[in-house]
Write a structure and sequence with these properties.
Multidrug-efflux transporter, transmembrane helix, 2 domains, transmembrane, membrane, 488 residues, mainly alpha, MATE_fam, globular
Amino acid sequence: MHGAPHLATFLTDLLSVSRTETRPLIRLTLPICGAQLAQAGMSVTDVMMTGRVSATDLAAVSVGSSLWLPLMLFMTGTLMGLTPIVAHLLGAGSTERIRPSVHQALWVALALGLVSALLLWLSVTPIFRLMDVPHEVAQRSAAYLSAVAFGMPGVALFQALRAFSDGMNHTRPSLWISLVGLAVNVPSNFVLIYGGEGLTGLFGDWLPAWMQGLPALGALGCGIATALSMWVMCLAMAVYTCRSRAYGSVSLWHSPTPPRGRLIGELLYVGVPIGVAIFVEVTLFTLISLFIASLGEVTVAAHQVALNYTSILFMLPLALSMALTVRVGNTLGQGKVERARMVAWNGVLVSVLIALFNSALLWFTAEPVMALYTHDTAVQRLALSLILLAMLYQISDSLQVNLAGALRGYKDTRIIMLITLFAYWAVGLAGGHWLGTQGLPGWTEPLGVHGYWIGLIAGLTVAAMLLGERLRRKTKGVANGRLDIAPD
């Protein structure tokens, strides 16, 4: 009975914080979600536009994307370590310490961008040989990646500036600038992929001779357009952070700070585990796709369609988790440790409501959406059965990403990395592979693609349970003064 009054007090406090906290949390979340969707839109247009040139160009871009996207996400995750640092300093009123911290993040971003570019220039051909990629696809994909490589420092610097802006409670610029990136990406894709022939087909033959004579670069053109939009986003974000008054007394571009070991160390301490956790999640889905490749094209198509649709819906819980990091960090920076605990659990509560909304959306829209993706009834049927499984993991998925978001607000990132490694690979991937290829001996036959999806549900559920327990201990320990937050 001793715990009942505590629980009643906790719930009363949570309800009271919910009333004041939910609206600012959602206000931060929606622009982040829009920015994520705009950036996802670039990948979709790349695939759609190259697919119209030839199957070889489409394969080259698809294979190339599976190499540069995980690299970019690792960089993004590492630089996301800046968001809780800025949020803490803002909450504590130590705005004079924000500028040097952001400058260190820009140095780290530049280094990560250059290393990523070198990796894409030097290591892709040996990887393609190892993977037995057909010669023509490998050649075009290497050309595509050599162009994308030029954009990697630009996108890394953009992500550092975005992490700063998010930490300052100012998430709208990332939305508008991601839309600018998309607006640059689509027309430059068209011109560079299809060349003069595409332009003539669209506008007629009254165009000047030099425009009609532009070469159609296919996959290479797509890579150039991607790099171009990365640098446009970087420069737009730099101009915005320089001119805008939204950042108050933080004059970001005033007197640059040289690299400082301690500040870079703090950023990497918080950020690298986030980067690794995101990388682990991406590789989980990549490896599952590779394992499923041997199960026939109907299965592969159904898996990709179901995964593509559910990953679009995942953007909302993901954006909420990024906003939750900011809100928790701000509140802890103000020294309000008990309120920070309530802010964290309120975010988790909102994530459950969003998951229920997503599940209902899947239930009502699955059939018409599947029909938009494909006319093949076998693919539609199989994809719909996978969507039913996806409805089961919406709550686990939304919970695990938002519990992790709240923990990042406490700068508690290493444990997230370890839990993610265990839950995704040992439970999700290994368990799913076992169910897919062996089934439960004596109980079921091998479950094929459904086995892998059941493994995903198990992995995400285990991650949610372990992260939930970690957040419970961390929030309680910090509120009681038994645990420290990582030092600023």
